[in-house]
Amino acid sequence: MSVSAAAIEALMQEHRTFAPSEDFVRSARVRDNSLYEQAEQDAEQFWAEQARHYISWATDFDQVLEWKLPFAKWFLGGRLNVSYNCLDRHVQAGRGDKVAFFWEGEPGDSRVITYQELLDEVCRTANALKQIGVRKGDRVALYLPMIPELVVSMLACARIGAVHCVVFAGFSAEALVDRITDSGATLLVTADEAWRRGKKVPLKQNADRALVDVKHEVKMLVVRRTGGEVEWRQELDSWYHELVPQQPPLCDPELMDSEDLLFTLYTSGTTAKPKGIKHTTAGYLLQAMYTHDLVFDIQPDTVYWCSADCGWVTGHTYIVYGPLGNGVTSVMYEGAPDFPEQDRLWSIVEKHRVSVLYTAPTAIRAFMKWGDQFPGRHDLSSIRLLGSVGEPINPEAWMWYRDKIGAGVAPVVDTWWQTETGGIMVAPLPGLLPLKPGSATRPLPGIFADVVDEAGKSVAPGQGGYVVLTRPWPGMLRGIWGDDDRYRETYWSRYPGCYFAGDGARRDEDGYFWFMGRVDDVMNVSGHRLSTAELESALVSHPAVAEAAVVPREDALTGQAIIAYVTLRSGFRERAELAEELRAHVGSQIGAIAKPRSVAFTPDLPKTRSGKIMRRLLRDIADDRKLGDTTTLADPEIVKELQARAHEERYSSE
Ligand code: WT7
Question: How confident is the model at residue 4 (pLDDT cuts 50, 70, 90)?
Fold first, then answer.
């Protein structure tokens, strides 16, 4: 039957397009196709040129790429230091007084840190790490809130050639045990406590508890953030404020090989055991800088803000290495977006005249749910460009973002990538490509992606399939820490010679990619393979809906039936007629096959700490199964609430 030939069915059509304004194009960094053309003609030559343009090399490389599938080496023979590229060279060029970070603490304290000050602090911290006994190649775990010391510690590791391994400060002691054990980190940098929504989170206490279960000796360097009480191991713990300020502000950067390890980062994942993703020095830095520069259309006076946490790859690449490599002024914020009120982000945008804002769809949908009055209170006229990352952005959220935050004119760049890719892969060059709400547009110059069917054949325009990357790229992961077999198996075994991303997408007639979510989440309804993203977009396009997740429930008749979990915007009431209206709405938007069998309202959805919806848990709830692993949940209460409601409040067509 023909339906099974399509890997994933594409049902949604979105026809709006938005060309960049004349005003935007006038100063845009890229205004013609030449980068695409050069990369198409000779990709290695293209990357070699970019590498010499963006990076200051201590020793030039002599080979661009060695590709022994699935292991790549880029810029062989080259030597460099990442912290030198992020700091020293800007200071040497006379930009020491330029602001690197406007930092905003959650309780209302703030700091302004110039490039010169950041360099001094990084050198002092690098010297402190050496004094503690950290050497080149050693692993250092960082378990810190979003305070300047986190960025400083990352760069201090890079300066002396130590490998950082950041663990998101919202994670528990158990997550810390696994990551410290797996990486073999010998030092943990943490803080007494973190601020979160006005409450104190006991980081040092979590760390103490974790280290009980770690088999090897781990020292600690502790930043004082709140001044809260902590226990102390006299022999092994040091205070940052005692050790660092007494160090000299000079520290020669260690010359690293292009392929030396820069960091490992564990993917939190919505499934399975975390993997320590390995990223090396030159290729990663290049991809961070190149993509940051061109996708965000960086100008000399750009004030840039990526609202992610450095615990995720987004923070690594787009708070630390991309912006600092490019010498840009950034905003960094410590706390929650709704503290003390739901307009916190907008008050920071107004205060610092932020011109580029990069955030996640889950945040955008929360802003929509909270209401337009919050951005409405502030002058957001400094915004010139908006970015999105982390999940498919549904067209309604895209439009809201552009209209309410971007004054109806700012380009919204949807950027598709993964922890594994190191940097952005599919995204618009905003001065060049007309945008379509919900599409990440095309692979960047130098990046080669395809959408294929089960057999690995490119699908026709308009059809859905699996996303693969057909050539190596500089920022690609170099493997999984300690597990080459898993690396091969996970990414390189499904389609020979290609990297399997695990995402579904459709490509349209213009070659634009429309990402449709993880392929593990695809549903099979009466032989039709339907993507979560499209169904959820259809639900969110109804004015009452703030956020939605769809999952399959086993069904004797259709194989799987669609269950929708829906969060309403403020001001709408949960009731049976609305559920019926939503089913009809989906039917009219994308067809009867896609109508949810039932709709369950929920005050929130189960999400990972990075804001991704955990459909796996919703599937368990829908099928009345025992729940799988819930340790990565941001708010475990939501799952309990949903289980309690499962039998009473599902508005069903049955
Ligand atoms: C997965 C990677 C990339 C940094 C943050 C997440 C999903 C990410 C998009 C996007 C649709 C997206 C994919 C991807 N994803 N960006 N613009 N459109 N989906 O990194 O935790 O490694 O997650 O996030 O499913 O595979 P990550």
Answer: very low
Return mean pLDDT, the chain. Answer: 93
Q: Which atom of ligand 1 is nearest to the CA of 417?
A: 3
Does ligand 1 come within 6 angstroms of the Cβ of 504? no
For 298-321, what is each residue's pLDDT tens digit?
Answer: 999 999 999 999 999 999 999 999
Asked if pLDDT for residue 529 goes beyond 90, the answer is no
Q: What is the pTM of this model?
A: 0.91
Give me the domain span that covers residue 647. Answer: 534-653
Position 563 in a domain: yes
- Atom from ligand 1 closest to the CA of residue 317: 4
CA of 415 to the centre of ligand 1 (A): 8
Ligand 1 geometric centre to CA of 361 (Å): 11
179-229 per-position pLDDT tens digit: 999 999 999 999 999 999 999 999 999 999 999 999 999 999 999 999 999
Assign residue 145 the CATH number of its domain: 3.40.50.980
Determine the pLDDT at residue 648. Answer: 58
Q: What is the pLDDT of residues 266-275, one digit of tens each?
A: 986 555 678 9
Ligand 1 geometric centre to CA of 230 (Å): 37
| 499 pLDDT above the threshold of 70 | yes
Domain boundary among 226, 254, 282: 254
For residue 476, report the distance from its CA to the centre of ligand 1, in Å: 15
CA of 266 to the centre of ligand 1 (A): 14
388 within a domain of the structure (yes/no):
no
Domain total of the chain: 2
Ligand 1 neighbourhood includes 499 CB (under 6 angstroms)? no
pLDDT tens-place string over residues 345-376: 999 999 999 999 999 999 999 999 999 999 99
pLDDT of the residue at 651? 62
Burial of 492 (0-12, 13-18, 19+ CB in 10 A): middle
Does ligand 1 lie within 6 Å of residue 567's CB atom?
A: no
The CATH number of residue 603's host domain is 3.30.300.30
Which of 271, 306, 417, 447 to mutate for ligand 1's pocket (most ligand atoms within 8 Å of CB)? 417
Tell me the two tokens of residue 237.
């713990």
- Comparing C-alpha atoms, which of 230, 203, 234, 205 is closest to residue 219? 234
- Last-in-domain residue among 236, 254, 272: 254
How big is the CA angle at 415 (ends 409 and 416), to the nearest 5 degrees?
A: 155
Checking phi first, is residue 468 left (phi over 0); if not, alpha (psi -120 to 50) or beta?
Answer: beta
Residue 95 included in any domain:
no
Q: Is 187 within the bounds of a domain? A: yes
Ligand 1 pocket member 440 (CB < 6 A): yes
Which residue has the least CA distance to atom 8 on ligand 1? 390
Distances in Å between the Cα of 286 and the Cα atoms of 54, 57, 282, 290 are 7, 12, 6, 6
pLDDT of residue 609: 81
Q: Identify residue 554 by its one-letter amino acid code.
A: E
How far away, in angstroms, is 377 Cα from ligand 1 center? 31
Q: Where are the beta strands (DSSP E) in 508-638?
A: 513-518, 523-525, 528-530, 545-555, 559-568, 598-601
| Shortest-distance atom of ligand 1 to CA 308 | 5
Distance of CA 529 from the midpoint of ligand 1 (Å): 21
> Rounded to whole angstroms, how far apart are CA atoms 113 and 151?
12
586: closest CA among 625, 544, 529? 544
